[in-house]
TrEMBL record:
Organism: Pseudidiomarina atlantica
Record Pfam families: PilM_2
Domain of life the protein comes from: Bacteria
Designated name of the protein: SHS2 domain-containing protein
UniProt-listed GO biological process terms: cell division
Taxonomic lineage: Bacteria, Pseudomonadati, Pseudomonadota, Gammaproteobacteria, Alteromonadales
Length: 356
């Protein structure tokens, strides 16, 4: 990974989700990393709807609380936008090209790479190393998103006292975490020639991601996540959704209508199944080495069981804290690891070059 010589400057990743902010601070330790701080701050309902921030001031206050919880001097931060708002493409360029030359090439070919006027987008690129099949070339990942999709998140982070150095894309951050922890936690699955199916199940959406060979091969974002189940279980809107989530985490489902639960699980699989069908229709590799569940859905036993019953390959609730141990004072977040997959990937992004 070329981590030597990174120095002691920490990397801070902040994932602004629909229901909570998750933050991870890393430091480089030889050829690996160590988590030194972590924080999770709950957000009010409907503060973020369809990936759009409805109240920047409220979000900034929540981010200030996150910063206070971290008790860190680090202000340089990596944030993210949703993959539904971004475009990522890989290009091959000469291995001897430096950043300036790569940037010039991207701008020259912008019309073919980015389906928006260059003046309306922000873009960044990251070298993925030597091209495996094209000698003398390197793979470069180009990511672009409309400026307005970035600005609100940057504004909220900066109002909270952070300095935004990079705005990444959520599925790329998820890929980065998987590529770091899977070789240690599940080497047989990671070394399999078949890709991995990642299901990012949050309170607001289901994102189906296929990864393999260090790349995001496919992604499909569909609105409607765990929040639909919470609303169905709390028809009158009088029960805190955090309490519902806690009961479901403990597998205390006896008091809930089996029809409501089964209807949700059926709809969840329908979303996943549709994403798989679309991926398979355009890919030579039709099967998967395994399924990785992440985010809040990965913390619910009934979701893990339901997905396991639908497929013939391993289904894993991915907890990156099983590889990157938390400091003792953050041990209460250990079981929340699946919710921190993106935040960890953002923190890891701090240790590769960025461009302004």
């Amino acid at each position: 990974m070329g981590l030597f010589g990174l120095g002691k400057k920490p990397g801070l990743g902040i994932d602004i989700g629909t229901d909570a902010i998750k933050a991870i601070e890393l430091v480089a330790q030889g050829d690996t990393y160590e988590i030194v701080r972590a924080a999770e701050t709950q957000l009010p309902k409907n503060l973020i709807t369809d990936d759009e921030i409805t109240d920047i001031e409220k979000l900034a206050r929540a981010l200030k609380q996150t910063r206070k919880s971290l008790s860190s001097r680090t202000v340089d931060v990596v944030g993210s936008v949703s993959g539904s708002q971004a475009i990522s493409k890989q290009i091959a360029v000469g291995i001897d090209l430096d950043d300036e030359a790569i940037s010039e090439k991207i701008e020259t070919e912008a019309e073919a790479l980015i389906p928006f006027p260059l003046a309306e987008v922000r873009y960044d690129f990251e070298s993925l190393g030597e091209h495996p099949t094209m000698p003398g070339q390197q793979r470069v990942l180009v990511t672009a998103t409309r400026t307005m999709s970035v600005d609100t998140r940057v504004q909220a982070l900066e109002e909270a006292g952070f300095k935004v150095r990079i705005m990444d894309v959520d599925n790329q951050a998820i890929l980065r975490t998987c590529d770091h922890v899977m070789p240690h936690l599940y080497p047989d699955l990671y070394d399999n020639k078949l890709p991995l199916l990642v299901l990012d199940i949050s309170s607001a959406a289901v994102q189906t991601i296929v990864i393999g060979g260090g790349e995001v091969l496919f992604t499909r974002y569909q609105s409607g996540g765990l929040g639909q189940l919470f609303s169905a279980l709390d028809g009158e809107g009088k029960v805190d959704h955090g309490e519902l989530f806690a009961k479901l985490r403990s597998d205390e489902v006896e008091e809930f209508s089996p029809l409501v639960v089964q209807d949700f699980l059926g709809n969840l699989w329908a979303k996943v199944s549709r994403g798989i069908q679309i991926y398979r229709s355009n890919s030579p590799k039709k099967d998967f080495a395994g399924v990785l569940l992440i985010n809040s859905g990965a913390m619910l036993p009934m979701v893990v069981q339901a997905m396991s019953e639908q497929v013939d390959y391993p289904v894993i609730s991915l907890n990156p804290f099983e590889h990157f141990p938390l400091p003792d004072k953050y041990s209460h977040l250990q079981s929340h690891g699946p919710r921190f997959v993106e935040a960890l990937g953002l923190a890891l992004r701090s240790f590769t070059p960025w461009h302004t």
